[in-house]
Amino acid sequence: MSRVDAIRSRGSFRTPDRLVPALLGGVLLVYFAIPFVVFLSRTGTASLVSRLAAPETQVAIRNSLITAPVSTAIATVFGVPLAYVLARTSFVGKRLVEGVVIMPLVVPPVVGGAMLLTAVGRFTPIGSAAAAVGVPLTGSLLGVVLAQTFVAAPFVIITAQAGFGAVDERLEQASRSLGFGPLATFWNVSLPLARGAILAGVVLTFARALGEFGATMMVAYNPRTIPTRIWVDFISGGIDTVVPLALVLLGVTLLVITAVQRFGRIPTVVDR
Last residue of some domain: 45, 60, 76? Predict the structure, then answer.
């Protein structure tokens, strides 16, 4: 065994140098875990099956399962090309564009919903024109999609941008030298190589859209989605009444964690 291997071997068994970080991190980990454990312990007091079978609950689940995939698809179709441009192109105002992409993540969702209302509300030029042709942009499933897309789309853009940034540009240049055009190179080289990051971003976008509450409450309080239904149930009946739908969202969260781990580590802007 070499000296370096010996040092590493001894380091793996010597924990005092890691004890303080482990204790500090453990405090936060326990803080994360306790609410889950206590909340799940209340499931026995709630009639899960009957409440999940309630018509209003079924409607909320259906609305969320309709709008969240649509929002995710919109964010992916428009966000992935934008991410590629940001990863591969330098231009005046790029930092401003990246700031605009990040803003929905920083702005509180309720504020984001208020901003959407000032742009597409019923009494705005866009909102009134849409309502005149029978396509209301607020108080409808379309309004839910608008709110979800605004809040969730940055996830797929940021992760895809980092994924494209991690792709060796020489591979794209080699594709171009073989006679493939920009679109063919993007489709056959860049997209497959950044696929893991893109898929992770898509999964995170879907989860964020499914759980969106603040902006949705402002733009489309009706029809109900799972988060807004949870809020209504909590106001009317307390914690026990929200357990069934909360478990639905927790189940989705577990699937999201599994999917992200399956796709691998999500690259960050620092990796570039």
Answer: 45
Take residue 160 and report the two structure tokens written for it.
Answer: 């895809």
Rounded Cα gap, residues 138 and 112, in angstroms: 14
Judgement on whether residues 98 and 79 belong to the same structural domain of the protein: yes
| H-type alpha helices, the chain | 3-13, 16-40, 48-52, 55-88, 94-106, 109-120, 125-132, 141-165, 169-177, 182-185, 191-193, 195-210, 214-219, 226-237, 239-263
Do 136 and 228 share a domain, yes or no?
A: yes
Asked if the model's pLDDT at residue 239 lies above 90, the reply is no
| CATH classification of the domain holding 263 | 1.10.3720.10
Give residue-wise pLDDT tens across range 248-269: 888 888 888 787 777 655 544 4
pTM score: 0.84
Give yes or no for a contact between 83 and 164, defined as CB atoms under 8 angstroms apart.
Answer: yes
Structure tokens at 50: 């009957």
